[in-house]
Write a structure and sequence with these properties.
The complex is a heterodimer of chains A (431) and B (248). Chain A is of the alpha+beta class and 431 residues long. Chain A contains 18 helices and eleven strands. The two termini of chain A are 32 Å apart. With 248 residues, chain B is α+β, with helices and mostly antiparallel strands. Chain B has two domains: 55 residues, no CATH class; 154 residues, NADH:ubiquinone oxidoreductase Nqo5 subunit (Beta Polymerase, domain 2, 2-Layer Sandwich), CATH 3.30.460. The radius of gyration of chain B is 22 Å and the shape is globular.
């Protein structure tokens, strides 16, 4: 801890000493480290705040505490294995990560139009479920950070319904690696449609409960109205997209503007608010969840039987899986074929799985409207079986740059609200 | 994009075998020798063989393919950009244009990047309001242009998307910063510096963003190993992954 003429550095050490020094000196500015382990910083986000009394005069963000080198690692694994990495980036939107990545790979392979219809419907359905799950966590953690634990328990309870569906479909609650280049890993297991219908029946009421709890709650309004304001020019300059830009009055949604996975065939609205504050972001998110329900319902109507993986033996892994006696998904027909039918098929399968398929040299950028904003995947191939480079434009990464614009001049308490309204997930920020 | 002179040349000489041969010879050497061996004596007699990469891809007008709706506005964008740059007398900024996978890439000289960004953002016919950041890419085999900085721009007004790519050599890894035009690129440029060592001249505070401040090297370059770095944690040193057990 150091005391200089005009500020006190409180970036570590004993808090009592800091307070004592602060009282003993004429300095009025206090530099406080919030994080990287503060519970309300959404993981390992570090905020460096300069405080003048209760007012935050400068807010700086330090990131990198969760950097895991996902982009570098992917260069050493096949294109198919890449999904296993990307799903772990923003761990609250795994299916968006996978879809963005697979869309980029499919673009490079020029097979975008050959991805089966059923696979696209499944992708859309899972992405919309994922959007709801992510928004529930956004609201839940936000409530918790403001001290409203009911919002937290409710939010996580509703999310659990969605995670149950994910577990049924992909086998895992998160880190699915379910969406693969060319389609999805396997078809929906029996009972999925029923479970989704159950959710569609139950969820509107649950959202209504959330709305009743928050929409006009005076305490909630006091903490969120006119807090962390960011207008549209600010959003554009800072590259802010997703619910944040829609809460600043621009109906910009990649699902409408640049449809992918067949989004042009679905009827839904893009919720907009022009508040530009934390409350507007909440309203946009909760309205988006209602729109997601609409899309999921249409997905169920569009689910026609058919293949879920591209019919191209050079790219697609066997996707007609059945539960084996050991509890693992296998494709008995395929195994019979390669083990006792055709030697060439065995060699081919071995090459496809161990070596992977080749992707023609080139570069492609694919973007999806993730729950948090524009999630872009820029993939470069040198013609080999592994990526030459994969880069992700994670929305949380970009949005955290707006912290200074949102927080400076406000109070410390509003910093919490501002960061929570951005809904950053450090796994995605740091990758 | 090309000026009048180049366009004439495109139509006549460009397609002659002689021209294509010269382009190919100008491409950097990919490898030498027959089998790429370096440890044993090459007895094949092909030791002096030089294998070159393909010449950089170069698309010709029209950029719009009537069969591909994704390319619908490429000719318009190229025309508008050419007009805007002509007005500034900087048509030479764009070296070549590449259309592939329904995407258009403008390969530009690094010197005029800021001007180009300003044109892209402010010209009413272009209006690329949103920059989705910059990605570094390292191509060690492209001698003299090893490091690439790749930008994606998105126009909300015209619902259009373009890519701008610029290069710099390893020996002089400098690219002008466009943070003054697109503030969102602040962190993206720091990331490209951190991972690739591209120095963005004019950036307000080009420091590492993901790696620790005292880290040596730029981890996503191709000459930087995966793992292989002993990590110190509270006094104990954890050996690099490839030394922990035998992966060979």
């Amino acid at each position: 801890m150091t005391v200089t003429e005009d500020y006190i550095d409180a970036s570590g050490g004993d808090w009592d000493e800091v307070v004592e020094k602060a009282q003993g000196s004429s300095a009025e500015r206090l530099v406080v480290n919030m994080g990287p382990q503060h519970p309300s910083t959404h993981g390992v986000l570090r905020l460096i705040l300069t405080l003048d009394g209760e007012t935050c005069t400068e807010a700086r963000v330090g990131i990198g505490y969760l950097h895991t080198g996902i982009e570098k690692n992917m260069e050493y694994r096949t294109w198919t294995q890449g999904t296993t990495f990307v799903t772990r980036m923003d761990y609250l939107t795994p299916l968006f990560n996978e879809t963005a990545y697979c869309l980029a790979v499919e673009k490079l392979l020029d097979i975008t139009d050959r991805v089966p219809e059923r696979a696209n419907v499944i992708r859309v359905m899972l992405m919309e479920l994922n959007r709801m799950a992510s928004h529930f966590v956004a609201m839940a953690t936000f409530g918790m950070e403001l001290g409203a634990t009911t919002v937290m328990t409710n939010g996580f309870r509703e999310r659990e319904m969605i995670l149950d569906i994910f577990e049924l479909v992909t086998g895992l609650r998160m880190n699915h690696a379910y969406i693969r280049p060319g389609g999805v890993a396997q078809d929906l297991p029996p009972g999925t449609v029923g479970k989704v219908r159950e959710l569609l029946k139950e969820m509107p009421e649950r959202i209504q409960i959330m709305r009743k709890l928050l929409d006009e709650n005076p305490l909630y309004l006091a903490r969120t109205k006119d807090v962390a304001y960011l207008n549209l020019p600010g959003c554009m300059a800072l590259g802010v997209t997703g619910p944040l830009v829609r809460a600043s009055g621009l109906a910009w949604d990649l699902r409408k503007a640049k449809p992918y996975c067949g989004y042009e065939n679905y009827e839904f609205d893009v919720p907009v608010s022009d508040g530009g504050d934390v409350y507007a972001r909440y309203r946009v998110r909760i309205a988006e969840m209602e729109e997601s329900l609409k899309i999921i319902e249409q997905c169920l109507d569009k689910l026609e039987p058919g293949p879920v993986m591209i019919e191209d033996a050079k790219i697609g892994w066997p996707a007609k899986l059945a539960l084996g006696p050991d509890g693992l998904g296998n494709s008995p027909d395929h195994i019979a074929h390669i083990m006792s039918g055709s030697m060439e098929a065995l060699i081919h399968h071995f090459k496809l799985v161990t070596e992977g398929f080749r992707v023609p040299a080139g570069q492609a950028y694919a973007a999806v409207e993730s729950a948090k904003g524009e999630l872009g995947c820029y993939a470069v191939s040198d013609g080999g079986t592994r990526p030459h480079r994969v880069h992700f434009r994670d929305p949380s990464f970009t949005h955290l740059q707006a912290v200074a614009a949102m927080c400076e001049g406000g109070t410390v308490a509003d910093v919490i609200a501002a960061v929570a309204s951005i809904d950053p997930v450090m796994g995605g920020v740091d990758r | 994009m090309s000026n009048e002179y180049e366009r004439d040349r495109d139509e006549a000489a460009e397609n002659l075998p002689d021209q294509r041969g010269r382009e190919r010879l100008a491409a950097p050497i990919k490898r030498t020798g027959m089998f790429g061996t370096s440890t044993s004596g090459d007895t094949s007699g092909f030791g002096g063989l030089q294998v070159r990469g393909s010449a950089p891809a170069h698309s010709r007008r029209p950029f719009t393919d009537p069969d591909d709706p994704r390319t619908a506005d490429f000719d318009r964008v190229a025309d508008d950009l050419e007009a805007a740059l002509t007005a500034l007398d900087r048509v030479d900024l764009v070296e070549r244009v590449e259309v592939a996978h329904g995407e258009i890439t403008f390969h530009v000289r690094r010197e005029g990047l800021v001007e180009l960004a300003r044109v892209l953002r402010d010209d009413p016919a272009l209006r690329y309001e949103l920059c989705t950041g910059v990605a570094g890419v390292h191509y060690p085999q492209e001698v003299g242009r090893e490091l690439h900085a790749v930008y994606h721009f998105r126009s909300i007004t015209h619902n259009s998307e373009i890519r701008v790519e610029t290069t710099c050599p390893d020996a002089d890894p400098h690219v002008p910063s466009i943070v003054a035009v697109y503030p969102t690129n602040d962190w993206h440029e720091r990331e490209a510096w951190d991972f690739f060592g591209i120095v963005f001249d004019g950036h307000p505070g080009l420091t590492r963003i993901q790696m620790p401040d005292d880290w040596h090297g730029h981890p996503q370059r191709k000459d930087y190993p995966l793992g292989g770095i002993p990590v110190e944690y509270r006094g104990a040193t954890i050996p690099p992954p490839d030394e922990r057990r035998d992966y060979k």
